[in-house]
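Sample A.
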Amino acid sequence: MKKSNRTERATSIRRSALAPVAPRLFVSSAHLMSAGSQQLSEFEFGLILAGNAFNRWVVRCMAAAGLKDMTTLEVLLLHHVHHRGREKKLADICFMLNIEDTHVVSYALKKLVAMKLVDGERRGKEVLFAASTTGQRYIERYREVREACLVAAIGKERTSNERLGELAAFLRFLSGMYDQAARAATSL
């Protein structure tokens, strides 16, 4: 190799080493990406990973609290039915959790009633649900496990609670955007 070729090659290597490197995007569906949606695709992949990790956590936390073989939905319903200590109607539960399929929620609530974790009381045409005393004990144990395993780990960073609050607001905003896009998609 000639000296001039080596010099050119070395110069080229130095330039490429100094050139900014485009960050690598982590996406699950690169075929959906366009120039205007790269960050959205990366966010959606992060959401998929976080959603699956959250689902796994909820089930394992409840198992550590003493209730094994529950689904994520059943755990979330138990928590929501107990929320604020007020009885709740099926429609209100579905609305609050943004679940369209009332049959899935109704089936899960029947399982929770059969497990004696939730009480269902018919009033006219409606059934009102509330956490039973047994359900409340498991919820308290879940809280203890959550504090020990998750809250303690997150609490080590001083600004984490503020950031989590900001992220929660952003996720609620995105929920509305996805709902609007879903409505738009049904008209296509």
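Sample B.
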Amino acid sequence: MTDDHNNATVSVGNRDSELNEQLSKGLDEVNFAATGTSAADQSSLSVKVVDESGELVGGLAGWTWAGLLGIEMLWIRADSRKDGWGSRILQAAEEEARLRGCDRACVSSFTFQAPGFYQRHGYVETGRTLGIPGGAEDVHMFKRLD
């Protein structure tokens, strides 16, 4: 057995868009083969709220893939956080996900962010990542949408 690692080069740097694209393509090939899905089963999803002056009130970024809604980010500006926008945005995303055939959703939220918000909306904790700076944890959650 030969050691081909001696002829390889390792480089470390900041975000590399080309590398990210190649990694995503490679992982898609593995994931699609393992799950019986295809690129047609995945799509990005966003919900955006702007005020009367066109300023961003808040929004959500996520994705759908093979029946799963993944929430990447949900943010509401500070002066609008008690106005119910988080709930309305989350409900809009879940409804769009259902229209796309999703029957489940996942999200993670640091303990200093909003895990309680998601739990009040039916999400249940499935695990935690420890070691977040400041002693926080990343709470992973799941919800059935059907």
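B remarks: The first strand starts at residue 42 and ends at 50. The beta strands are 42-50, 56-65, 68-76, 104-110, 124-132, 136-144.
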